[in-house]
Design a protein that fits this description.
By secondary structure, the protein is α/β, with parallel strands linked by helices. It has three domains: about 130 residues, no CATH class; about 240 residues, Vaccinia Virus protein VP39 (Rossmann fold); about 40 residues. The strands form three sheets. An eight-stranded mixed β-sheet has the order 8-7-6-9-10-12-11-13, with helices on both faces. Helix 12 links the parallel strand 9 and strand 10. Helix 3 packs antiparallel against helix 17 and helix 5 crosses helix 16. The longest helix has 19 residues. It starts with 16 loop residues before the first helix and ends with a helix. About 40% of the residues are buried.
Length: about 450
């Protein structure tokens, strides 16, 4: 399905679509709470008892949180059974209706939807290709996400379209980067690999002008639609391969959530995920282009997955890729080691995931690198921390200042997702499904014996 160009929507947009979404409480935190989840990207890597316990949880079918299972076409395992039960019970209120329609891509009776939309609104949504009207049923083949108070249409996560280079839905890494970017006012921002335009649109609030680029014309179509939908006009969209779309331009802020999955079955640029053999092809090219396209004093902030082989530190790898800027950039690497492996990186020593921030110094010399745990959203603006660190000469003092900021961020971070009540309900549902699947009793005893045997090994 192709979303029409925003210009053609000026007379067909349903009245108050954004107001309807807001009044129904269609925020992503509310969605996560309704699904009983934290929407996380990767499981952290661990060893010893913690690592064994995570392995036990993984083997029990609880390796992914329920929200990730709900927003995935693959609803297998124990949590998948819980999410399928959630779907079978049907929508109970307006928020449920919007989740069913725009995130789970489940059909909804048009008579039920009329508590939210008029007949004219439903026809307008159909004209926009946001829904299909099939007799008395409305079906959405796309997805709508809320992020930072804005709304984004993307290709669906549950039912991915076939035969197209589909546009990435808002995955947890989208929210991770939004929660980490400096929001200090700037003249110009560049968003590379913009996809649905989420980072460009949020940056438009504190940038006089934004340029968003993507190699995929389908992505730019979605991004232009989303800018139109949210009434944002200070963005210029350009099709091209990374910096080739802005050959002679430099920017104060460069953002990117590039494809970073290690993959040898595809080539970088072919789809929304492939980042080359070790996942770093596009990421490396962006670092190499900063010398030409990042202004002195400017910031570059990117999602990263750094695959480490041997003893090379991630910050050393970044500096090596910066080329001429090696001695004039300060780096803050907010990163966690994660338990991600596939066939391309089976021999990796560690895999790091998070957001890297690079500041091009006005006065070269005396540069520094700091690594910190990744706990988005940050409770401070990263550019403020960088300015403080630049006026600190002692490395030990820099480390202490950095630690104090990130500890505050961890304490103050918003724990989005369900509260204790919903988590207890999910756990009880999990236990009931385990018992039900374990019947007859003999099988249950065997399962319990294996479980407690595994638990004894952990302890």
């Amino acid at each position: 399905m192709t979303v029409p160009h925003p210009i053609s929507l000026a007379k067909t947009c349903p009245r108050g679509l954004l107001e309807i979404l807001r009044k129904a409480g269609f925020t992503f935190d509310a969605v996560k709470a309704r699904l009983g989840t934290e929407y996380r990207m990767y499981m952290p890597e661990g060893s010893g008892i913690a690592g064994r316990f995570r392995a036990l949880v993984q083997s029990a079918g609880m390796g992914a949180d329920i929200g990730a299972r709900m927003l995935s076409a693959n609803r297998l395992g124990v949590l998948g059974a819980i999410s399928n039960s959630f779907i079978r019970r049907g929508p109970k209120d307006r928020l449920d209706l919007l989740i069913w329609l725009f995130l789970l891509n489940e059909p909804v009776q048009t008579t039920t939807l009329k508590c939210l939309f008029s007949d004219g609104d439903l026809n307008a949504l159909a004209a926009m290709n946001l829904i299909r009207l099939d007799r008395d049923v409305a079906v959405c083949d796309l997805a709508i996400f809320e992020c930072a108070g804005l709304f984004f249409a993307t290709d669906a996560r549950v039912k991915r379209p076939s035969g197209v280079n589909d546009v990435m839905p808002l995955h947890p890494d989208s929210f991770d980067l939004v929660g980490s970017v400096s929001r200090k006012p700037v003249e110009s921002t560049l968003d590379l690999c913009t996809g649905s335009g989420v980072h460009a649109l949020v940056a438009a609030r504190h940038s006089k002008h934004v340029v968003a680029t993507d190699i995929n014309p389908r992505a730019l179509h979605f991004a232009e639609f989303n800018a139109w939908l949210n009434g944002i006009t200070n963005i210029e969209f350009q099709q091209g391969d990374l910096f080739r779309a802005v050959e002679d331009s430099a920017f104060d802020l460069i953002l990117s959530n590039p494809p970073y999955i290690p993959d040898t079955d595809s080539s970088p640029g072919d789809n929304r995920s492939c980042g080359g053999q070790h996942g770093d092809v596009l990421w490396s090219r962006i670092l190499q282009g900063l010398d030409k396209h990042l202004r002195p004093g400017g910031l570059c902030q990117m999602i990263h997955m750094i695959v480490q082989f041997g003893d090379e530190r991630p910050e050393d790898k970044i500096r090596a890729l910066l080329g001429p800027l090696t001695d004039s950039c300060n780096i803050i690497l907010c990163s966690n080691t994660i338990a991600y492996r596939n066939k391309e990186i089976e021999s990796a020593t560690l895999v790091h995931y998070g957001v890297v921030t690079i500041k091009r110094s006005v006065n070269p010399g005396g540069t520094f690198s700091i690594r910190a745990p990744f706990h988005p959203p940050l409770a401070f603006d990263i550019s403020t921390l960088l300015s403080t660190l630049e006026h600190t000469s002692l490395p030990e003092e820099r480390i202490l200042i950095g630690q104090s900021h990130f500890e505050r961020s961890e304490r103050n971070k918003i724990l989005s997702g369900a509260g204790a009540r919903m988590r207890i309900v999910n756990f009880l549902a999990y236990c009931c499904i385990i018992v039900r699947r374990a019947l007859p009793v003999r099988s249950y005893v065997r399962s319990a014996w294996r479980f407690f045997g595994s638990l004894h090994q952990v302890l």
